[in-house]
Every structure is written in C-alpha cells, then in structure tokens.
DNA sequence: TTACTTCTTTATAATCATTATAATTAGTTT
DNA sequence: AAACTAATTATAATGATTATAAAGAAGTAA
C-alpha cells in the first residue's frame, strides 16, 4: 500500500500550503517506495535519471520541508551523512555495527523513561530517540564462515 | 573525586600501551573536570592557553584514541559538531530543544527493549542509544516570562 | 650514551556534507 | 495575461573532520 502513504503525504503537504512540484513528488515517492533510509546524496543520485538538472540543494531543501511537515525524520549518526526516514508508525531502528544496515522494529513507547527523566531533571519532555546496535544476521553468518 | 577518574583513566591507557603525553593528559583532564560535553573545538580552545602550539588534529586523534580505549563516547546530533563525553557510570542524556544544554540522568538499562529488538530482527544486540528531548527549566522560565 | 625504531604531534592541505546566495523559472491569483 | 510569490538551479561558501608529510619525543637495546 505505498500508494496510500504517498497520497496521504501529498494531502498533508497541500493542507499546509506546500506546493507539490515534480521534484517533491519524486523525492517523497522514492523515500516511500525504496524502503530504505537514504542519504540526501543517494536520493539525488537515484533521481538523476528522471531529473538530470535537479540540484542537490533541492533535495536538502525539500527534505527540510518534509521534516517541518512531520512527514520525514532525519537520522544522524557519527561521521557519515544524515539519513532520512519517511515517518509511518512510530518505530525504532536497529543498526548493524558491521555493515550499517538499518532495520525497523516496533516497541511500545518509553513513556516511563520520559517520566523519570522529567522528574529527575526538571525538564518538560517532548520526545526521545532510541536506537539499538548489534550485528545483523548476514554479518553474523559471514563471521561464522570465516572463523578459524 | 575527579582525581580518581583521571588516575583510573591514565592507568587504563597505560595498560593498553598508549603513551601519556602532556596533550593527552590535558584533554582527559578537561573532559573530566569541565563536567560538560564539549566539542573538539571547545577542547582545543580551552587548552590553547596551556598548549599554544597544539593542533586541532591532535584533539581529534586523541579523542579517537580515548574512544578506542572505551574512556570516551562520541555524541552525534544533527547539524552541529560531535560532542564528547567521559564515560563514568552508564547514564543517559536529556537535551534541551531550545538551548542545547545536555544533562545526565540515570535509569536502569533497557534490556527488555534490547531483547525484543533481537527477537524481532534476528540481530545479535550489542548496545543501544537513548536520548530524551525537551525544554530545560531555564528555557521554560524564559518562555513563561515573555509570554503575553 | 648512542643509535634505532616507533609513536605522537604539528602544520597544512584536502575532503565532503550541508547551507547560503543570486538569478531564473514555474505556479498561483487576480 | 500581469503581477506576485515560491521553488529550483547553479555555484560558491562554510565548517567539521581527516589525510599527509615532516619534525619531535619517547622507548629499547646494544
């Protein structure tokens, strides 16, 4: 049902007064249908064929537009570039320490952690970020094979 | 007891065959005693007085050395530069959305989240990262004051 | 101590993601 | 269609981080 996500997203954008340009349509569609967490550059390269004149700035600009509309989240890690994630349900990410693969998983929200943090620090809590790190099945298998 | 942390850290380094240079000593000491989460550049500037000839590369190099020894963790956020945190107990961070202040808080580890993630995704889990975001008391007060 | 080896630091340049700018183009409204 | 506004493009600028090569300091073994 990726078509549903895309249509909903376009409606959301229109309602907040954002114009649907061909570039925006393509970026959103790529984010949804690629089922990945691409970098800005990956998006840029993937759309190069259809939009030979598109500028990298357009990708960045529109990713920010989407973030402001709540459609997209930016994922930032150490050295590498940011990755962008089309927001559907609330989910968390598990990331392979070896190959960098990012996989979604679902878990009920961590409200009690937020409450504790609020209580201890006096902050008004808005949100949280959680990521789990480990070794994906593929990399685990590869290690197994090459083990002496 | 910051002296304890520093001495332990130096022992750890020595045991893993890392030389204790004056620069390394100073960087570690600053990380521990500043009670902050400084960027590489902040460390560089803070030590400028004592080490007028120190290169930024030295700061980065040694922060990496410390990370490899498990003494320091890198905290990466969106646009800004990485921040570095001397590892003492296991703790989490709460970050002010308005002023960027980072405050530590303690919470029992989230093993059950790790277990669920491992189960659902088939990963071998190594670690996780959790951050809470919100508004710190200072910024909340400031907003209150300027409210109409 | 001396010579030799190995790390570490320094200074500098290079890289690379991201953002800013200004000019052009496309959409929308009247 | 005219006028206004927003979006895109091309390009340059920024800024954090890393790579490189030369110089310096420490460790070891004779």
TrEMBL record, chains A, B:
Keywords: DNA-binding, Repressor, Transcription, Transcription regulation, Zinc
CDD domains: Fur_like (cd07153)
Domain of life: Bacteria
Keyword Transcription set for record: yes
InterPro entries found in the cross-reference section: FUR (IPR002481), Fur_C (IPR043135), WH-like_DNA-bd_sf (IPR036388), WH_DNA-bd_sf (IPR036390)
Keyword Repressor in record: yes
Family matches, as Gene3D superfamilies: 3.30.1490.190, Winged helix-like DNA-binding domain superfamily/Winged helix DNA-binding domain
SUPFAM superfamilies for this protein: Winged helix' DNA-binding domain
Similarity remark: Belongs to the Fur family.
Xref: PANTHER family: PEROXIDE-RESPONSIVE REPRESSOR PERR, ZINC UPTAKE REGULATION PROTEIN
Protein name: Transcriptional repressor
